[in-house]
């Protein structure tokens, strides 16, 4: 089992700013790249798998470098390039703008794959908390956007990649339940985020009153056919035993398995939401390292089999 030290922006390999081409709200945002030691930006026949990451923070706070420790786990154990998306945040940019930014990032990376030596037939997504919800939502929205572009004959030479794995750390799947109902669903709840902050997140992201049954908000309510079409065959779900999101996430895991998806991962016992984000310094965090190692092995297994 590897041990992943605490890192932040000091480990970023390079960055770039790109336009949001999918959103109806014009703007741009940053991509932060973490690359393995074998990577070179100069043209090369060596192509690298691509992991696109969506950070957490209740859709309202947080930054693309928040998952630097996870990026280090991936880039130190695989040959993949890790691109973390600094999508625009609520309340200035409420649902679904962040999702559309992330879809724009996927399409941009696919379009510029040769420039960055990326093997886009080995594309995967990862995300934590709100970013975990984005993993599901972006997969669905990407599927919809590709269908639209094909129907309107607007691919414009885009090289279409292949989504081969999703890695979700404690992501929400059902926005139709209230926070009180989510809390009540877990008798072993370990409160982490103050209720007032959760209220701020929800009101900021949802202030335009979208339909909470939308699969882009509640992927757990998406149709079977949409999940079959939009999701790859392999996923990883790491959930927290003390999380208010545990019940809905485990229901979704069961449903995806029933649809024939291979779902790796497990429930981390004795921890609450976001347990892996706390600074550990020299103490380390065995549970975090075990979860990251499993997720990396799942990614590597898919990448080497494609």
UniProtKB/TrEMBL annotation:
<dbReference type="InterPro" id="IPR013094">
    <property type="entry name" value="AB_hydrolase_3"/>
</dbReference>
<dbReference type="Pfam" id="PF07859">
    <property type="entry name" value="Abhydrolase_3"/>
</dbReference>
<dbReference type="InterPro" id="IPR050300">
    <property type="entry name" value="GDXG_lipolytic_enzyme"/>
</dbReference>
<dbReference type="GO" id="GO:0016787">
    <property type="term" value="F:hydrolase activity"/>
</dbReference>
<keyword id="KW-0378">Hydrolase</keyword>
<protein>
    <submittedName>
        <fullName>Alpha/beta-hydrolase</fullName>
    </submittedName>
</protein>
<dbReference type="InterPro" id="IPR029058">
    <property type="entry name" value="AB_hydrolase_fold"/>
</dbReference>
<feature type="domain" description="Alpha/beta hydrolase fold-3">
    <location>
        <begin position="51"/>
        <end position="275"/>
    </location>
</feature>
């Amino acid at each position: 089992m590897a041990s992943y030290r605490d890192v932040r922006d000091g480990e970023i390999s390079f960055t770039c700013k790109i336009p949001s081409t999918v959103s109806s709200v014009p703007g741009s945002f940053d991509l932060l790249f973490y690359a393995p030691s074998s990577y070179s930006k100069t043209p090369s026949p060596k192509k690298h798998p691509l992991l696109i990451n969506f950070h957490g923070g209740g859709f309202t706070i947080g930054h693309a470098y928040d998952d630097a420790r996870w990026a280090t786990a991936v880039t130190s154990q695989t040959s993949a390039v890790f691109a973390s998306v600094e999508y625009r945040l609520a309340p200035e940019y409420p649902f679904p703008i962040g999702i559309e930014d992330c879809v724009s990032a996927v399409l941009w990376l696919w379009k510029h794959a040769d420039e960055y030596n990326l093997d886009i037939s080995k594309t995967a997504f990862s995300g934590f908390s709100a970013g975990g919800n984005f993993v599901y939502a972006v997969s669905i929205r990407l599927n919809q956007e590709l269908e639209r572009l094909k129907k309107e004959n607007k691919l414009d030479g885009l090289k279409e990649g292949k989504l081969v794995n999703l890695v979700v750390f404690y992501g929400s799947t059902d926005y139709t339940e209230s926070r009180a109902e989510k809390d009540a669903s877990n008798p072993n709840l370990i409160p982490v985020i103050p209720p007032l902050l959760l209220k701020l997140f929800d009101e900021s992201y949802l202030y335009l009153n979208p339909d909470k049954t939308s699969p882009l908000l509640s992927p757990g309510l998406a149709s079977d056919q949409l999940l079959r079409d939009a999701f790859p065959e392999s996923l990883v779900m790491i959930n927290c035993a003390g999380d208010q999101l545990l019940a809905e996430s485990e229901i979704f895991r069961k449903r995806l398995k029933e649809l024939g998806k291979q779902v790796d991962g497990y429930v981390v016992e004795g921890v609450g939401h976001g347990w892996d984000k706390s600074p550990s310094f020299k103490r380390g965090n065995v549970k975090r390292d075990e979860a990251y190692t499993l997720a990396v092995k799942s990614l590597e297994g898919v990448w080497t089999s494609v």
